[in-house]
């Protein structure tokens, strides 16, 4: 069975990439990450970023592209992700002031058009969850299931964030099995609760039972584990180094 690649979502390092984007990617490679998932491109042109990735022997797993950019800057996003060799692009969530059924239908149309356009260039398009998609309903479905029912498997893949599924009270493995074959990217993330606060923490230091998740991921056809911490409790590079080491010890 082919081993799953290990990447990092660069949103985790946003304070570092703002100071030194090129240097940050170099450190990511030195820590043993094979790929990166972008959340912005550091002001580099498609050609510059493509050359940097080749120099560092890093794979562009893909990019997170928000609803606004899908609406207003889709051509730019396509140009960049084609140039850097992304196989995946995902919408990182839907965060209007108020989520309504009418708004849901509108965002589904944006996702459909985005998927169609990316597919013309061989790039799969997906959606990344938070907790609310499991907690809120569209009709008689959870919003999560509604998104993936509204678009077929070949138009919208699942980028499951196991931490937020756990936080919503679900068994992440159950969701993974429900969407087996449709979940090429898995956000591996841990959380801890302290004094009523939810903290995202380094892998293996929180309450999410991650080892069975890693095993199940191979069974359902996942291609990449993506490390992400929404807020690091330690310096960001220390955090992603600790999570990479945990994956070395528990996966490879």
TrEMBL record:
Keyword Isomerase: yes
Keyword set includes Aminoacyl-tRNA synthetase: no
GO MF annotation terms: isomerase activity
Coiled-coil ranges (or none): none
Record Pfam families: AP_endonuc_2
SUPFAM superfamilies: Xylose isomerase-like
The entry's keywords: Isomerase
Xylose isomerase-like TIM barrel domain sequence ranges: 25-249
InterPro entries noted in UniProt: IolE/XylAMocC-like, Xyl_isomerase-like_sf, Xyl_isomerase-like_TIM-brl
Source organism, top-level taxon: Bacteria
Protein name: Sugar phosphate isomerase/epimerase
Origin species: Paenibacillus chitinolyticus
